[in-house]
């Protein structure tokens, strides 16, 4: 089974509780206005990874991470492959956080999503809606998005324990990759003013 991937960060602190292995899937049909991840929309871009290769890589990080985060792109457009990853990850005692532009009730109607939903601890659902932009809650960007605690691994404590943050990675050749949640345009302007963009 293959997964089409836009990017992987093996250890980040800004995409869910604790340190996490983070997979941005490639491909999203939702096309939300104001989406900050337009480059993940195409279903032809990115790179195809074998699920077993990703699992080996995750397990190599096992002692340094609390869990794995799926975002994108639309994770539920590749629910089968991510369901396999989520199940194996959970068996090793790691947690799973998954984002979706869909709604939990609709996702539950499609049997293909079952394994991924059954192995997700925290699901953050709902489209990004530009006019409802709100960075006050951790990891998400608009106030309509909902947090579903699908297991007892996490609970409402996350709202006081974690704040939205971004990480800015600048590669040796000067390429900037920013992740986390916040006003990226504003942050990039500040980086530019510092003369390092
Ligand atoms: S679901 Fe996510 S990736 Fe897809 S368009 Fe909406 S915000 Fe962008």
Explain what this protein looks like in three dimensions.
By secondary structure, the protein is of the alpha/beta class. It has one domain (2-164): Aldolase class I (TIM Barrel, Alpha-Beta Barrel), CATH 3.20.20.70. Helix content is 23%, strand content 25%. It has six helices and nine strands; from the N terminus they run βββαβαβααββαββα. It has helices spanning 51-60, 79-91, 104-107, 114-118, 158-161, 184-193, and strands at 2-12, 20-25, 47-50, 67-71, 95-99, 122-125, 146-149, 166-170, 176-180. It has a seven-stranded mixed sheet. A two-stranded antiparallel sheet has the order 8-9. Helix 1 (51-60) runs parallel beside helix 2. The longest helix has 13 residues, at 79-91. The radius of gyration is 16 Å and the shape is globular. The N and C termini lie far apart (39 Å). Bound molecules: iron/sulfur cluster (SF4).
What is the count of β-strands? 9
The description of the largest β-sheet is: 7 strands, mixed
- Estimated helix fraction: 10-25%
Number of domains: 1
First and last CA, distance: 39 Å
- Enumerate the distinct ligands: iron/sulfur cluster
Structural features:
6 helices, binds iron/sulfur cluster, seven-stranded mixed beta sheet, TIM Barrel, two-stranded antiparallel sheet, alpha/beta, 197 residues
Short description:
The chain has 197 residues and is of the alpha/beta class.
Fold topology:
Layout: E1 2-12, E2 20-25, E3 47-50, H1 51-60, E4 67-71, H2 79-91, E5 95-99, H3 104-107, H4 114-118, E6 122-125, E7 146-149, H5 158-161, E8 166-170, E9 176-180, H6 184-193
Helix pairs in contact: 1-2
The protein binds iron/sulfur cluster.
